[in-house]
Write a structure and sequence with these properties.
This protein has 517 residues and is an alpha/beta fold. It has 14 helices and 23 strands.
């Protein structure tokens, strides 16, 4: 059963979360080392993480690694690989369940860290911790359904066995926008299947992931089985990807970085006795179609939540809304008023819906796309940012009259920028929706059974949602992952996820022995 979200309408829950933020704020400014084997390694190369809502507030200082630290971490993975692979499935699953319990015990504290380190508003931070809990429990339960060895295809005189074995040492490269859910999911799936790994988090969320790895170790993962290595992508990430000691890579991030990882992993240097397996989730340019007979009240709320939740900093976010021409004007009037009503403010304030971008680079990118959008369409609305704010804030922006080939309708922006496009028919709407290289999430608001069936058949999206928002996939209910250039590998949070971290062996024995040697 999935962990329920927190009901922040209850005063006791609000008070508890505010207290968690207060306590975490009292712990700011500390230094965070690597966690490699039994060692906590600090160094002279460091990076300060600042609160995106308040530029002058320092959250903590992380030690930055290099290629030598990558080799050190991979040595730990190799030294513990055979030991961890021999741990019974039931024991590995028990440890993951224990980690989920620890996450639940600390859920408000960990969500508070997300509020302060990556600027997630309350509801978004709570949902991320819940997804992490669900992922660990789900993969533990899924693993218990399997056995290490299965008898298959039995015939007289022959015994056939099928074994699933871990791949071996690997690398998890996780993003900052879901700082617990995604690394917990990828790491948990790899660990419960018997693999060892190095977790290389995004620089923006390294403190949250430090707490995750400490929690996994406390739950019973042996030191050296999971190792944490902070560092810059072009240095540490590239060294890990290129290493011939790595057998698999699980990555979530941009298409550009994902494709580069796939390309570099395809090279098999001398001394590497395997082909690396790459599991990659690489973003989206997601569309929602609003049909002429749609319930516009539901559609407006769903589009606003999908486009502007966590400031649009989700790979699943809606960045295109395709409107049938008959309802375009009425829908836009309501959407603009809804966007106008969304409070912009610091992530720690309970009423905030639109918090900060994660850093200056993200804010600058959004501002560049807003300026581009003014040339490619009409700026129908741009939310105001209160003068009192001193973080990386951008209000929601809505553009109208956008061509399907415009850059703001083709490129992933990763911010609260929404392009609206007009379609004269439902067929044309699906054609527009499919006219991008991504195919991650998509949505349709319609009362027409025929159009809904048409969308199910023709709308190319790894996760297609009908008459609801397109963000917020739940583990075990909506396995998540894309088609096209949105992903390579099986869906996360589904029945096929664990297979990616395993390899099969078939053993056939002739049982009709003729003589003894």
């Amino acid at each position: 059963m999935n962990e329920p979200l927190t009901d922040f309408s209850r005063p006791a829950h609000r008070a508890a979360f505010q207290e968690a933020i207060r306590q975490v704020r009292g712990s700011l400014g500390k230094s965070y080392p690597f966690l490699i084997g039994n060692q906590r390694i600090s160094g002279r190369r460091t990076l300060w993480r600042e609160n995106p809502s308040h530029r002058k507030e320092r959250v903590g200082q992380i030690t930055l690694g290099d290629s030598s630290h990558a080799e050190m971490a991979l040595t730990q993975c190799e030294e513990t690989a055979s030991l961890w692979a021999r741990v019974p499935i039931a024991e590995r699953a028990r440890i993951l369940q224990r980690a989920a319990d620890l996450l639940k015990e600390r859920r408000f504290e960990l969500a508070a860290w997300e509020v302060l380190e990556v600027g997630k508003p309350w509801v978004e931070a709570d949902a991320d911790v819940v997804e992490a809990i669900d992922s660990l429990r789900y993969y533990a339960e899924e693993m218990l359904r399997w056995t290490e060895e299965t008898r298959i295809g039995q015939v007289p005189g022959e015994r056939n066995l099928y074994r699933r074995e871990p791949l071996g040492p690997g690398v998890v490269i996780s993003p900052w926008n879901f700082p617990l859910a995604i690394p917990a999911g990828m790491t948990g799936a790899a660990l419960v299947t018997g693999n060892t790994l190095v977790l290389k988090p995004a620089e923006q969320s390294s403190i949250v992931d430090f707490h995750l790895v400490e929690l996994l170790l406390k739950a019973g993962i042996p030191p050296g089985v999971v190792n944490l290595l902070h560092g810059l992508g072009p240095e540490v990430g590239d060294a890990l990807v290129r290493s011939p000691r790595v057998r698999w890579i699980a990555f979530t991030g941009s298409k550009e970085v994902g494709l580069r990882i796939i390309e570099r992993s395809a090279v098999t240097p001398p001394g590497q006795g395997w082909v690396k397996r790459v599991i990659a989730e690489m973003g989206g340019k997601n569309a929602i179609i609003v049909d002429r007979d749609a319930d516009l009240d539901e559609a407006v709320l769903g589009v606003a939540a999908s486009a502007f939740g966590y400031q649009g900093q989700k790979c699943s976010a809606c960045s295109r809304v395709i409107l049938l021409k008959e309802i375009e004007r009425r829908f836009l009037e309501r959407l603009i008023e809804t966007a106008r009503s969304l409070p912009v403010g610091p992530a720690e304030e309970p009423g905030t819906v639109i918090g900060p971008m994660v850093d200056q680079e993200a804010l600058s990118r959004v501002r560049r796309y807003i300026e581009l959008g003014k040339k490619e369409g009409g700026l129908a609305f741009e939310g105001d940012v209160p003068d009192r704010l001193d973080g990386y804030f951008a209000g929601p922006a809505i553009f109208t009259g956008v061509s399907p080939r415009a850059r703001i309708a083709q490129e992933e922006i990763f911010g609260p920028v929404l392009a609206t496009l007009r379609a004269s028919s439902f067929d044309e709407a699906i054609e527009i929706a499919n006219g991008v290289p991504y195919a991650l999430t998509g949505g349709v608001y319609s009362r027409s059974p025929a159009h809904i069936e048409q969308a199910k058949e023709r709308f190319r999206a790894g996760n297609l949602y009908i008459n609801r928002k397109i963000t917020g996939a739940v583990v075990g209910r909506q396995p998540f992952g894309g088609l096209g250039l949105s992903g390579a590998g099986q869906k996360a949070g589904g029945p096929d996820t664990l297979l990616q971290f395993l390899q099969g062996r078939t053993i056939t024995e002739n049982t009709l022995r003729h003589g003894i040697e």
